[in-house]
What we know:
By secondary structure, the chain is an alpha+beta fold. It has helices at residues 5-36, 41-66, 77-88, 104-107, 112-126, 162-169, 182-193; strands at 93-96, 131-136, 148-154, 196-204, 207-214. The chain has one domain (5-218): Histidine kinase-like ATPase, C-terminal domain (Heat Shock Protein 90, 2-Layer Sandwich), CATH 3.30.565.10. It contains 7 helices and 5 strands; from the N terminus they run αααβααββααββ. α2 (41-66) packs across α5 (112-126), α5 packs antiparallel against α7 and α6 runs parallel beside α7 (182-193).
Amino acid sequence: MLVDTRVLELLSSRLCHDLISPVSAVNNGVELINDIGNSVVDEAMKLIGDSAQVTARRLRLFRLAYGRAGSEAGLAISSVRQTVLVYAEGSRVAMTWPDNAPDEAFAAHRGALKALVNATLFAEELLPYGGTLEITASQGTESTATPMCRIILSGRRGPSLSPFTEALDGSLPVDDLTPRTIQPYVTGLFARAFGLDVVLRPVEPERVDLVLTVLPAASGEALPA
């Protein structure tokens, strides 16, 4: 799987953007102690501790989303669920991920949970004003023989879904990618590489669904080791 240099640059910029704030806060806490002294130790230590926790949970999620860890066979749903829910604490998007979602048939396909983690990160771009995200076990009207997972997003959306849809399906030219559309592009890239289809479906004015489906021809297939 070849990846354009611009994709790597935009993804690296996104990671640095998400990590620079908590890391800088740790540094600010240390400087506060050095500059003012013991009178601010308690306040500074709380700042350092909180920021270190934010950094750690973001790194754990990024390891699953972009690193080799998310591609390993036999990845436990419970572990992935916990990592995502802890990351989502304090987010503008409230997340619900029940214990029975996704079903075992979907999760057993190598790379499916990695694509799902990336899709949850994509959801933050779809709901810039906040909202709710629910990962469902229900297959709705889809064939029960097809392993799939549905993410229901509710909330006020941005003015247009078109750039996100085009980035997700890979039709958006790489040169037109932006910091906001790099995540859907990467989500689609990982999904296709692991033999999954991922589509964005508007349902209501303030609801869209992200549906991930294991393609029949890809059953049991995955990226080479």
